[in-house]
């Protein structure tokens, strides 16, 4: 595969394909395993992810890239094959989460800034050697209207860190996934859809201004934003058509056409809604960038449940993963239909 940043980014948003976010840190995967009563051991984490990466049809046809956690990029499958090799053989690009998590922002109670810039140049060089050709950094912005959140300081600090991360990635020959997530399921999550629109627009404008300041080549990034949705606890929820329309409007107003692709996070949406929203946007007509998925929960939930930590359930779990990957692959082309969900 070509090593040019532009080509890697194009491959990550190839038509009808999207990214599997399997970069849960050890604490997050524990929460997922707790739901299925499975112990959070290194072997179980390996077995679960090996099950996903060996889902041949899903990986070959619908998954363009996989975001890994530091432990996973170093792990070998039960037969000794490096997990990175399984991903490559399936024709997908291996990627790596390089942020060190969202930490409290000093002086701004309730807000966080994502850390991990110290030593990042050296870590990226090692990840490149281990096979990563893209990376991910997630900034987290919470809306809490009663507390006046988010602050402009929080948005600015996170956008600056995202841009410094992106510049370091490109220097290392690695495509940065730039992920500023406005939470839909934060501590209060009672905001309406218009507030999500305003905060997302503000955040994306700030992020692209910082990317410009840091001389980041937009053709060599993938943006991973939230969709425009009301908070999970908002009294009025939005119709899928409204989510699609406002998300497109917000992205058109903020994301330059030089960006090759936008791969959404699912953020706590149900599996099917995350698919429907993506489908409606792609069905709306021609767009300046590719629009696809980079889902964690919305791609994995059904497979995780079907697996339940038991080797005898691997085939059922792979079938569940294939179904969601296929539905989202269709949505990325605007060709999904509700009837296919039950087919
Ligand atoms: C897979 O989850 C990632 C976060 O893991 P940690 O919280 O343990 O760092 C997360 O960044 C994910 O890649 C994105 O938020 C998209 O996942 P969802 O589940 O929102 O689609």
TrEMBL record:
Name of the top EC class for this enzyme: lyase
Keywords for this protein: Glycolysis, Lyase
Record pathway: Carbohydrate degradation; glycolysis; D-glyceraldehyde 3-phosphate and glycerone phosphate from D-glucose: step 4/4
Catalytic reaction annotation: beta-D-fructose 1,6-bisphosphate = D-glyceraldehyde 3-phosphate + dihydroxyacetone phosphate
Keyword Ligase set for record: no
EC number(s) recorded for this UniProt protein: 4.1.2.13
Highest taxon of source: Bacteria
Molecular function terms, GO-annotated: fructose-bisphosphate aldolase activity
NCBIfam families: FrucBisAld_I
Record family assignment: Belongs to the class I fructose-bisphosphate aldolase family.
Name of the molecule in the record: Probable fructose-bisphosphate aldolase class 1
Species name: Stappia taiwanensis
